[in-house]
Amino acid sequence: MSLFAIALLLASCNPKKEVKLIDAANFNTEIEGKQVSLYTLHNGFLTMQVTNYGGRVVSLWVPDRRGSYEDVVLGYDHIDKYLNNTDNYYLGASIGRCANRISGGKFTLNDVEYQLTKNEGENTFNGGLTGADKMVWDVVSVNDSVMQMHALFADGLDGFPGNLDVTMTYTLTSDNQFQIKYKATTDKTTLCNFSNQIFFNLKGEGNGTVLDHELTINSRYMTTINAKLIPDGKFLGVKNTPFDFREKHLVGERINTEDEQLLNAKGYNHNWIVDKSSPNAYALCASLTEPESGRQMEVWSDQVGLQFNSGNLFDGKTNGKCGKPLKYREGLAFGPQFFPDAINHKTLAPFPILEPGKEYTQLCFYKFSVQPKPRKGN
């Protein structure tokens, strides 16, 4: 057989996968009189679909080193699956007004104790019952690569004080970043700590475990948690522990170690303290590589903490967009944030407090690239 014939055969056996968009009609509905839709952003390298219900990233297509595309975020192909889901409530969503857990569902500001809605046992999780993930965000503007959304969190919603006015902007930049910007103001002193829960698999959704992804995290310390995933106000040096990702390790290399912290979370679901020169400095938080495809993602942020979740609660009972089950540890998430439950621990400053006349801002981005195939012998 000629070399040309062999090349044709290989091409036919290994076709490049192209971007396949979800039908926008699947998300066309109204919730409490507000329009929900699906929007498509692209920059020539990345293609992303977003719904204004919870600001959810529904799909994100990234090429491999062959130019073959895969959808690298976990999600659903119809709005009903988000609305009627009994599991994975926050999949792909924006999280706030106060991300992560608040112990006992209460906190004190200016000598006033606030009791919040409890939505995870005795605790408040990811903003309560009506957090950012349940909001139908108003679409302020949208073009090929930028989508700006707005939401007002009413005074007293889920027990939080203050009318919190939030603008959130998603951008696909020319250098292949998926960038998220938040701005917020309030008329009463309140808590403000936004993040997201986008689960990634650089192989593509439904294509297997993330345990063989290569991970680095730019951090020397983490905040420890109890069996209910609540921080105890202490810091742990990661040296000589399964939490040390300062050098590259496989996600699954040490995940089943008999370690109290890993047992508490059933894997990784912890906050790392990002190493940087000052609390407001902008820094590389983490880097993730899938060796076979060559896809790489860097996580950059101006936040002090980074929550890394290794997908421990996926159980395969629901199917994703491609019709395949969302299985155990087949997705992982990186959420920039203030330290969890910081408001209830004097040791976990800075605190996620926003006062009238001041503006909360946050910038994070996920930068995608494709790494060349290593040469043999290297």
Lay out the secondary structure.
Blueprint (H helix, E strand, L loop, with lengths): L2 H11 L15 E3 L2 E3 L1 E5 L4 E5 L4 E8 L5 E3 L7 H5 L9 E3 L5 E2 L3 E4 L2 E4 L8 E2 L12 E5 L3 E8 L10 E9 L4 E10 L3 E2 L3 E3 L1 E2 L13 E4 L1 E7 L5 E7 L11 E2 L9 H6 L3 E6 L8 E7 L5 E7 L3 E5 L22 E6 L15 E2 L5 E11 L8
Features:
378 residues, mainly beta, Beta-galactosidase, Chain A, domain 5, nine-stranded antiparallel beta sheet, 3 helices, 29 strands, disordered N terminus
Can you describe this structure?
The chain is mainly beta and 378 residues long. It has one domain (27-370): Distorted Sandwich (Beta-galactosidase, Chain A, domain 5), CATH 2.70.98. It contains three helices and 29 strands. The strands form eight sheets. The chain has a nine-stranded antiparallel β-sheet with strand order 12-13-14-15-29-25-24-19-22, with no helix packed on it. The chain has a six-stranded antiparallel β-sheet with strand order 18-27-26-23-20-21. The longest helix is centred in the first third of the chain and has 11 residues, at 3-13. The protein is globular. The two termini are 32 Å apart.
In short:
This protein has 378 residues and is mainly β. The chain contains 3 helices and 29 strands.
